[in-house]
Amino acid sequence: MAGLGRLVIGQPLARLPGVLAREARPGAKVMVVADSAVAGRYGKMLKIGLMKAGFEVRLVIIPAGERSKTLAQAQKLLTQLSKANFERESWLIALGGGVVGDLTGFVAATYLRGVPYIQVPTTLLAQVDSSIGGKTGVDTPEGKNLVGAFYHPRIIWITPDLLKTLPARHWRNGLAEVIKYGAIRDAALFEILERKMDRLLKGYSADWVPVIKRCAEIKADVVKKDPTETKGLRAILNFGHSVGHAIEAATGYRQYLHGEAISIGMFVAGLLSEQLSGLDGIDRIRLGTLLTKAGLPARVKRPIPRSRLLQFLARDKKVQNGTVRFVLLKGLGEALSQQKIAPDVLALALSASGL
Question: Could you say which of 124, 141, 164 is where a domain stops?
Fold first, then answer.
């Protein structure tokens, strides 16, 4: 996985300080960034382990949730790094979910034009998706992830048993991305999810380890072939995301977790796929059924003004020449990117999800 960072799956968190000691300069400064939901449970333990390994460690706690993923929060971290005299051989560690990972990666990419960092994802969504691939960034009032950089971590340290304490809503949040991987790239994974969803929904168990590993492998393979999303392949990872991101932004990142918004986006994309790209109607129903079985929404809780939603869609990163390009399914396990959608067709699909 050259260029993507070393992917380590299944090792306990307690072993990370020893691994970093072989990578970093002795006595290097390390900043661990964690949110308030994770810091007490894992942050202090990691800090102690790093200090025992000889590092000068600073644990920085940020508020939990998408609203911490801002330029203002990034500025706070950059200021702390500067005041603490962090150098190019200093390290950052992102300990948390997708918000912490995206924010810390962005700060690592921009401080001194780039310092090394490690992703330690502690949510299902981050372990299967956001920690892999080098996309870093922050949100702005105009849209999600509009400011960022491609910057890969040196190490992606995935410890599945950190998920034992994950709340039920966050299991469902991550399941949206897991289902996405089956839908776009692996029909066999999709079938496994159909068979095992009842058990998987109960929380962490040994059944989860191969699922997490397979999703991470798919993400890494796609990114390796199209690292900066210039060949069209990496865009398939955005199945359901154009509408999902617009929903998140239009509601101020307060009403929906990322996976919940993406689920609605996948319902919309499933309808468009049946109409435009040859997805079999039965398979479209299977996709919707699996999302629903996972406890994920098909519709918004309350209407979003169409004009407001389209305003955020128009700012989507996949817009070309003023037109949003959608990811659609040709079949389960086979996705097509860069698909143009006529406004009237899109309007009908959006209406089906209450948009």
Answer: 164
| Sign (positive or negative) of CA dihedral 226, 229, 232, 237 | positive
Q: Give the pTM.
A: 0.92
Joined together, the tokens standing for residue 144 give: 């999600």
* Tokens linked to 9: 């799956």
The verdict on whether 66 is a catalytic residue reads no
Residue 106 has pLDDT above 90, yes or no: yes
Q: Quick one: 241 and 344 in the same domain?
A: yes
Give yes or no: residues 171 and 258 share one domain: yes
Task: Convert the pLDDT of each residue in 132-190 to its tens digit.
Answer: 999 999 998 888 888 999 999 999 999 999 999 899 999 999 999 999 999 999 999 99
Is there a catalytic annotation at residue 173?
A: no
Shared-domain flag, residues 153 and 12 = yes
245 labelled catalytic:
yes
Given 127, 145, 164, the domain boundary residue is 164
Report pLDDT digits (tens) over 12-39: 999 999 999 999 999 999 999 999 989 9
**Catalytic, out of 152, 214, 219, 284:** 219
83, 113, 164, 195: which is the annotated catalytic residue? 113
Q: Which of 69, 241, 284, 325 is catalytic?
A: 241
Tell me if 1 is assigned to some domain.
no
Q: Give catalytic status of residue 177 as yes or no.
A: yes
Tell me, yes or no, if 170 is annotated catalytic. Answer: no
DSSP 331: E
253-264: pLDDT as tens digits: 889 999 999 999
The answer to whether residue 234 is catalytic is: yes
In angstroms, how far is CA 108 from the centroid of its own chain?
17
185 is catalytic: no
Angle between helices 241-250 and 306-313 (to 10 degrees): 120
